[in-house]
Design goal:
single chain, five-stranded mixed β-sheet, three-stranded antiparallel β-sheet, binds coenzyme A
Length: about 230
Protein backbone atom coordinates (compact mmCIF):
# COMPACT_ATOMS: atom_id res chain seq x y z
CA UNK A 1 0.00 0.00 0.00
CA UNK A 2 1.04 3.60 -0.55
CA UNK A 3 0.56 6.73 1.53
CA UNK A 4 0.28 9.63 -0.93
CA UNK A 5 0.32 13.11 0.58
CA UNK A 6 -0.27 16.50 -0.98
CA UNK A 7 0.25 19.93 0.49
CA UNK A 8 -0.02 23.21 -1.35
CA UNK A 9 0.98 26.80 -0.69
CA UNK A 10 0.06 30.24 -1.93
CA UNK A 11 2.03 33.35 -0.99
CA UNK A 12 4.05 31.15 1.37
CA UNK A 13 0.92 30.02 3.23
CA UNK A 14 -0.46 26.46 3.56
CA UNK A 15 -3.76 26.45 1.65
CA UNK A 16 -4.54 22.80 1.02
CA UNK A 17 -3.55 19.36 2.25
CA UNK A 18 -4.84 15.85 1.76
CA UNK A 19 -3.64 12.30 1.79
CA UNK A 20 -4.67 8.86 0.62
CA UNK A 21 -3.76 5.29 1.57
CA UNK A 22 -4.26 3.16 -1.53
CA UNK A 23 -3.14 0.08 -3.45
CA UNK A 24 -0.02 0.71 -5.56
CA UNK A 25 -2.10 0.31 -8.73
CA UNK A 26 -4.06 3.50 -7.91
CA UNK A 27 -0.95 5.69 -7.58
CA UNK A 28 -1.24 7.73 -10.79
CA UNK A 29 -4.97 8.26 -10.43
CA UNK A 30 -4.57 9.48 -6.84
CA UNK A 31 -1.69 11.82 -7.69
CA UNK A 32 -3.78 13.37 -10.45
CA UNK A 33 -6.80 13.83 -8.19
CA UNK A 34 -4.68 15.47 -5.48
CA UNK A 35 -3.08 17.78 -8.06
CA UNK A 36 -6.57 18.72 -9.25
CA UNK A 37 -7.53 19.53 -5.69
CA UNK A 38 -4.48 21.78 -5.16
CA UNK A 39 -5.04 23.51 -8.51
CA UNK A 40 -8.65 24.28 -7.62
CA UNK A 41 -7.22 26.47 -4.85
CA UNK A 42 -4.83 28.27 -7.25
CA UNK A 43 -1.80 26.83 -5.51
CA UNK A 44 1.58 28.36 -6.34
CA UNK A 45 3.64 25.48 -4.93
CA UNK A 46 2.52 21.86 -4.68
CA UNK A 47 4.34 19.13 -2.78
CA UNK A 48 3.47 15.47 -3.41
CA UNK A 49 5.02 12.75 -1.27
CA UNK A 50 4.65 9.01 -1.97
CA UNK A 51 5.68 6.49 0.69
CA UNK A 52 5.35 2.72 0.76
CA UNK A 53 3.68 1.40 3.90
CA UNK A 54 5.47 -1.77 4.94
CA UNK A 55 3.64 -2.48 8.20
CA UNK A 56 0.18 -4.08 8.57
CA UNK A 57 -2.52 -1.43 8.44
CA UNK A 58 -5.09 -1.49 11.23
CA UNK A 59 -8.77 -1.10 10.30
CA UNK A 60 -11.19 0.85 12.49
CA UNK A 61 -14.91 1.64 12.17
CA UNK A 62 -16.12 5.03 10.95
CA UNK A 63 -17.72 7.26 13.55
CA UNK A 64 -21.35 8.13 12.89
CA UNK A 65 -23.81 10.76 14.01
CA UNK A 66 -25.99 13.65 12.86
CA UNK A 67 -24.99 16.90 11.13
CA UNK A 68 -26.00 20.03 13.01
CA UNK A 69 -29.12 22.13 12.62
CA UNK A 70 -28.11 24.96 14.97
CA UNK A 71 -29.36 28.40 13.96
CA UNK A 72 -26.99 30.80 15.72
CA UNK A 73 -23.62 31.14 17.46
CA UNK A 74 -25.41 31.18 20.82
CA UNK A 75 -27.33 27.99 20.08
CA UNK A 76 -24.18 26.25 18.82
CA UNK A 77 -22.09 27.20 21.83
CA UNK A 78 -24.82 26.22 24.26
CA UNK A 79 -25.06 22.82 22.58
CA UNK A 80 -21.28 22.36 22.70
CA UNK A 81 -21.22 23.16 26.39
CA UNK A 82 -24.08 20.75 27.11
CA UNK A 83 -22.35 17.94 25.23
CA UNK A 84 -19.12 18.43 27.19
CA UNK A 85 -21.00 18.61 30.49
CA UNK A 86 -22.93 15.44 29.66
CA UNK A 87 -19.57 13.74 29.04
CA UNK A 88 -18.62 14.76 32.59
CA UNK A 89 -16.20 17.60 31.76
CA UNK A 90 -15.90 21.30 32.54
CA UNK A 91 -17.63 22.48 29.35
CA UNK A 92 -17.28 26.17 30.12
CA UNK A 93 -13.51 26.12 30.70
CA UNK A 94 -12.85 23.78 27.77
CA UNK A 95 -14.79 26.04 25.39
CA UNK A 96 -13.01 29.12 26.77
CA UNK A 97 -9.71 27.48 25.87
CA UNK A 98 -11.02 26.29 22.47
CA UNK A 99 -12.30 29.69 21.33
CA UNK A 100 -9.15 31.48 22.55
CA UNK A 101 -6.80 29.34 20.46
CA UNK A 102 -4.82 31.02 17.75
CA UNK A 103 -4.55 29.28 14.39
CA UNK A 104 -2.02 26.45 14.63
CA UNK A 105 -0.48 24.17 12.01
CA UNK A 106 -2.06 21.23 13.81
CA UNK A 107 -4.32 20.32 16.71
CA UNK A 108 -4.08 21.13 20.40
CA UNK A 109 -3.96 18.24 22.84
CA UNK A 110 -5.33 19.04 26.27
CA UNK A 111 -5.41 17.07 29.52
CA UNK A 112 -9.13 16.69 30.18
CA UNK A 113 -8.65 16.81 33.97
CA UNK A 114 -6.12 19.65 34.42
CA UNK A 115 -6.87 21.44 31.09
CA UNK A 116 -3.14 21.81 30.56
CA UNK A 117 -1.96 21.99 26.93
CA UNK A 118 0.32 19.07 26.17
CA UNK A 119 1.75 19.58 22.66
CA UNK A 120 5.56 19.60 22.64
CA UNK A 121 5.50 22.53 20.15
CA UNK A 122 2.71 25.01 20.95
CA UNK A 123 2.97 26.90 17.63
CA UNK A 124 2.73 23.74 15.56
CA UNK A 125 0.37 21.59 17.61
CA UNK A 126 0.17 17.94 16.63
CA UNK A 127 -1.03 16.92 13.18
CA UNK A 128 -3.50 14.05 12.76
CA UNK A 129 -2.30 12.18 9.73
CA UNK A 130 -1.78 8.74 8.09
CA UNK A 131 -5.42 7.71 7.62
CA UNK A 132 -7.89 7.17 4.83
CA UNK A 133 -11.18 5.48 4.05
CA UNK A 134 -11.15 1.98 2.57
CA UNK A 135 -13.07 3.69 -0.27
CA UNK A 136 -10.57 6.42 -1.21
CA UNK A 137 -11.97 9.57 -2.79
CA UNK A 138 -10.47 10.01 -6.25
CA UNK A 139 -12.66 12.96 -7.26
CA UNK A 140 -10.18 15.75 -6.55
CA UNK A 141 -12.90 17.62 -4.66
CA UNK A 142 -13.13 18.16 -0.93
CA UNK A 143 -16.05 16.68 0.97
CA UNK A 144 -15.65 18.52 4.29
CA UNK A 145 -18.08 16.51 6.36
CA UNK A 146 -16.85 13.12 5.18
CA UNK A 147 -13.22 14.10 5.77
CA UNK A 148 -14.09 15.42 9.21
CA UNK A 149 -15.70 12.10 10.14
CA UNK A 150 -12.71 10.12 8.90
CA UNK A 151 -10.29 12.24 10.89
CA UNK A 152 -12.50 12.07 14.00
CA UNK A 153 -12.68 8.28 13.65
CA UNK A 154 -8.91 8.01 13.93
CA UNK A 155 -8.74 10.47 16.82
CA UNK A 156 -11.47 8.74 18.83
CA UNK A 157 -9.99 5.28 18.24
CA UNK A 158 -6.97 6.27 20.30
CA UNK A 159 -7.20 4.62 23.78
CA UNK A 160 -6.40 7.77 25.81
CA UNK A 161 -8.47 10.19 23.74
CA UNK A 162 -11.95 10.79 25.14
CA UNK A 163 -13.21 13.53 22.82
CA UNK A 164 -12.34 15.94 20.04
CA UNK A 165 -13.77 19.41 19.37
CA UNK A 166 -13.29 20.97 15.96
CA UNK A 167 -14.34 23.90 13.84
CA UNK A 168 -13.19 24.16 10.23
CA UNK A 169 -10.72 26.91 9.25
CA UNK A 170 -12.37 27.18 5.82
CA UNK A 171 -13.76 30.72 5.36
CA UNK A 172 -16.74 29.37 3.42
CA UNK A 173 -18.04 27.16 6.23
CA UNK A 174 -18.94 27.61 9.88
CA UNK A 175 -19.53 24.03 10.87
CA UNK A 176 -17.80 21.99 13.53
CA UNK A 177 -18.36 18.92 15.65
CA UNK A 178 -17.71 17.20 18.92
CA UNK A 179 -16.68 13.56 18.61
CA UNK A 180 -16.42 11.34 21.64
CA UNK A 181 -16.16 7.69 22.56
CA UNK A 182 -19.42 7.93 24.51
CA UNK A 183 -21.65 9.91 22.13
CA UNK A 184 -20.07 9.40 18.69
CA UNK A 185 -20.10 12.29 16.23
CA UNK A 186 -22.31 15.31 16.84
CA UNK A 187 -22.24 17.90 14.07
CA UNK A 188 -22.78 21.56 14.95
CA UNK A 189 -23.46 24.48 12.61
CA UNK A 190 -22.68 28.18 13.21
CA UNK A 191 -19.74 27.46 15.50
CA UNK A 192 -18.00 30.62 14.26
CA UNK A 193 -18.80 33.86 12.45
CA UNK A 194 -19.10 33.47 8.64
CA UNK A 195 -15.98 34.32 6.56
CA UNK A 196 -13.69 33.92 9.56
CA UNK A 197 -10.27 32.56 8.64
CA UNK A 198 -9.91 30.78 11.96
CA UNK A 199 -10.33 27.16 12.90
CA UNK A 200 -9.36 25.01 15.84
CA UNK A 201 -9.10 21.39 16.88
CA UNK A 202 -8.78 20.30 20.49
CA UNK A 203 -8.11 16.68 21.38
CA UNK A 204 -9.05 15.79 24.95
CA UNK A 205 -6.54 13.37 26.51
CA UNK A 206 -7.18 11.33 29.65
CA UNK A 207 -3.88 10.10 31.10
CA UNK A 208 -5.61 8.06 33.82
CA UNK A 209 -6.84 5.39 31.34
CA UNK A 210 -4.73 2.23 30.84
CA UNK A 211 -1.32 1.17 32.07
CA UNK A 212 2.08 2.84 31.81
CA UNK A 213 3.29 6.26 32.86
CA UNK A 214 1.51 9.46 31.87
CA UNK A 215 4.43 10.44 29.61
CA UNK A 216 4.43 7.05 27.88
CA UNK A 217 0.70 7.27 27.20
CA UNK A 218 1.02 10.82 25.88
CA UNK A 219 3.88 9.99 23.54
CA UNK A 220 2.08 6.81 22.34
CA UNK A 221 -1.00 8.95 21.65
CA UNK A 222 0.92 11.55 19.63
CA UNK A 223 2.80 8.86 17.70
CA UNK A 224 -0.51 7.10 16.91
CA UNK A 225 -2.27 10.27 15.79
CA UNK A 226 0.58 11.49 13.60
CA UNK A 227 2.19 8.34 12.27
CA UNK A 228 0.26 5.06 12.65
CA UNK A 229 -1.41 4.20 9.33
CA UNK A 230 -5.12 3.52 9.72
CA UNK A 231 -7.83 2.53 7.26
CA UNK A 232 -11.40 3.41 8.13
CA UNK A 233 -14.22 1.02 7.22
CA UNK A 234 -17.14 3.00 5.83
N1 LIG B 1 -1.64 23.43 8.24
C1 LIG B 1 -0.59 24.28 8.13
N2 LIG B 1 0.65 23.90 7.69
C2 LIG B 1 0.80 22.62 7.32
C3 LIG B 1 -0.25 21.67 7.41
C4 LIG B 1 -1.51 22.12 7.89
N3 LIG B 1 -2.58 21.32 7.98
N4 LIG B 1 0.21 20.48 6.96
C5 LIG B 1 1.49 20.66 6.62
N5 LIG B 1 1.86 21.95 6.82
C6 LIG B 1 3.17 22.58 6.53
C7 LIG B 1 3.88 22.86 7.84
O1 LIG B 1 4.71 23.98 7.67
C8 LIG B 1 4.72 21.61 8.04
O2 LIG B 1 5.82 21.80 8.89
P1 LIG B 1 5.65 21.45 10.48
O3 LIG B 1 5.62 19.95 10.58
O4 LIG B 1 6.82 22.07 11.13
O5 LIG B 1 4.35 22.05 10.91
C9 LIG B 1 5.12 21.28 6.62
O6 LIG B 1 4.00 21.65 5.81
C10 LIG B 1 5.44 19.81 6.39
O7 LIG B 1 4.43 19.02 7.01
P2 LIG B 1 4.34 17.44 6.82
O8 LIG B 1 3.33 16.92 7.78
O9 LIG B 1 5.72 16.86 6.87
O10 LIG B 1 3.79 17.37 5.33
P3 LIG B 1 3.31 16.11 4.51
O11 LIG B 1 3.49 16.51 3.09
O12 LIG B 1 3.94 14.86 4.98
O13 LIG B 1 1.72 15.97 4.85
C11 LIG B 1 -0.58 16.73 4.95
C12 LIG B 1 0.90 17.06 5.18
C13 LIG B 1 -1.32 18.05 4.91
C14 LIG B 1 -0.77 16.02 3.63
C15 LIG B 1 -1.10 15.81 6.04
O14 LIG B 1 -0.87 16.40 7.30
C16 LIG B 1 -2.60 15.57 5.84
O15 LIG B 1 -3.12 15.23 4.81
N6 LIG B 1 -3.40 15.65 6.70
C17 LIG B 1 -4.83 15.40 6.39
C18 LIG B 1 -5.55 15.46 7.59
C19 LIG B 1 -5.49 16.81 8.14
O16 LIG B 1 -6.08 17.73 7.61
N7 LIG B 1 -4.77 16.90 9.23
C20 LIG B 1 -4.66 18.13 9.93
C21 LIG B 1 -5.46 17.97 11.18
S1 LIG B 1 -4.66 18.58 12.58
Amino acid sequence: MLNIRMRAEKSGKHISGAERIVEDSLRDQVVLSLLKRAESKDAEAINIKIETICEDIKHIPCISGPSGTDKSLEEARCKMKNILVSLGYDGEQILKLFFALSRLRGATIVDVNSLERLEPDKQRGIRVSAFDSINPDLSGKKDHRREAKLLASKVISCPNVVAEICVTDDVNYTFGYIASKKLGYIGITHVKEPQLEWGARVILFDGTIGSGSYEEKLSRTIEYLEKTPILIDE
